[in-house]
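#random but structural
TW: two for the price of one
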Amino acid sequence: MTRDERIQHLKQAVKERILILDGAMGTMIQRHKLDEEGYRGERFKDFDRDLKGNNDLLVLTQPDIIRDIHSAYMEAGADIIGTNTFNAQSISQADYGLEDLSYELNVVAAKLAREAADAWGGKTPDRPRYVAGAIGPTNRTASISPDVNNPGFRNVDFDALVEAYSTQVRGLIEGGADLILIETVFDTLNAKAAGFAVEEVFDEMGVKLPIMISGTITDLSGRNLSGQTPEAFWYSMRHLRPFSIGFNCSFGAEQLRPSVDEIAHVTDTYVSIYPNAGLPNEMGEYDETPEQMAVLLEDWAKSGLINIVGGCCGTTPDHIRAIADAVAPYAPRAIPQVEHKLRLSGLEPFVHG
């Protein structure tokens, strides 16, 4: 099946049932308890910086581990798997002195995911699996100063973000991604830079893939780090005409429910949600069981709030299996007819007329 054929199949499938995203990559990597040598592999055994914790590098040094994680999630019921590229752009990789590897990391990561997805798709020809090229937020913020004594200071600008994201997107497309996933958006300006880069690369390469956008809520006020409400965030991003928009990370399903409810009623595209397995405990671990999480997300499906659902931090194939089983009986959210009006966004939404 070609990429164009998979995309057409995806667009039909999302109308018929709630699609399942995979779960956390980092949680599964931690189970392998890799040491410094494990992260380095043979290729980087003499590298002059510590590399432990650079999960994106594992597509080069431990490809079998990453491929097996993808396969485990698809065996559990995932339709869409995200590439292991959350920090695989030059800005984040600069922390390890590996910024020049950005393109290679993304090509290889997408190929690994593609191989795993095609293998599972071959077992279920009527149900192909899709690869989402994952783009994280970087470790910098374009709209907020990291220096409390200098509010005007920025440690990154829009053009630098666009350049870093563009290299990443080229790699993901070259490696075989079916979608582009701009995820864990805490700063809307970073996401706008990512979106700009994606559209530029689409034009450059002569392709057009569905775009998924997933923000993150930073506190119980229901806003992202930029201060935007869910509705305002949607109005900031809707010019990209995304395939889906929604939220991931930060909270478990219980705390994220109000934000999901808000965006589900104002967006005229699909809603994708993948919360954490509850809130972290004192040790930073996630305690919500697959059964507990599935009960909460089943209620979202029953209430007609979601089109695509999966898991973020702390989730495993067991969580994804339980979620897939829980939401299977329910129809996907019906996209509302949103009246055409002037809709603007600051920290709050503004709708005229």
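TW: number two ↓
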Amino acid sequence: MTVIVPIHGTETVADQAPERVGVLLVNLGTPDSADTKGVRDYLREFLSDPRVIENQGVVWKLALNGLILRTRPARKARDYQKIWNNDANESPLKTITRGQSRKLAATLTGREHIVVDWAMRYGNPSMRSRIDALVEQGCRRLLVVPLYPQYSAATSATVCDQAFRVLSEMRAQPTLRVTPPYYRDDAYIDALANSITSHLATLPFEPERIVASFHGMPQAYINKGDPYQSHCIATVDALRQRMGLDDNRLLLTFQSRFGFDQWLQPYTDKTIEQLGKDGVRRLAVVMPGFAADCLETLEEIAQENAEIFVKNGGEQFTAVPCLNDSDGGISVIRQVVLRELEGWL
């Protein structure tokens, strides 16, 4: 005898709601407060990452705990205080990254199954807390978006490391994807060119040179195979072509070196100093490697390097804002996200 068992509560494929997908924007990090303790806590986490300082041996640990964390936090805290968002009591990087998350979500209307969130690799909100939150909201698929146009092991790879570390402790892991670097995507180059052109159009002067300054890296890391330098070169080459500028008008440099090892050259501060001495009087600096303005752009470039330029004969200086949460910046992130979500939507 055949027994027919009714199945209740089933839905056709067409009736099923799409599986929830989490999109996590991740930037480098920031102290929780612009004081010595906040900066010390942040630097301890940052500089203890073997992706950032590869040799974490006894000598480095003695230097970190015996010297760097005793002297550097107070000085860097003063730098953070110069650019701190006092209204929100947070760094501009945190304010902007939150804005990027909210504006990206607003462009994805009609896709309510996509949940957009944001995190910092170092500091708060932590990647662990936000991945947990996305999973708790029912996200069974996760797209991690390192907000670095150019790949490096010290930035993009450590985001992946942390994502894998968090997932390694989960019994039921979400399916994971990570967006690739977008250092020469047409949308990114167009957004940079439009941003530079729009900013320069607001100035009472025309710069004689434009310096494209990227965060530095020890040369030894490149020698070991890190592609970061080649990505920076490709970005600037594409930007030169897009804007019709040669390598004399748009220069490539590297900033923010640390310690005594040789870092990628030419150095931004030395280049800007020499430009002033050589008679350049009007200068613009753009920072294509930063998706959001932060200490390195707002204080190091817009203040410290502006002073270096004027001290050495320069007269007019401007720092072009990063893409941040501008329409152009969000358009770039949206395109990268939707491309990598193909097959999940």
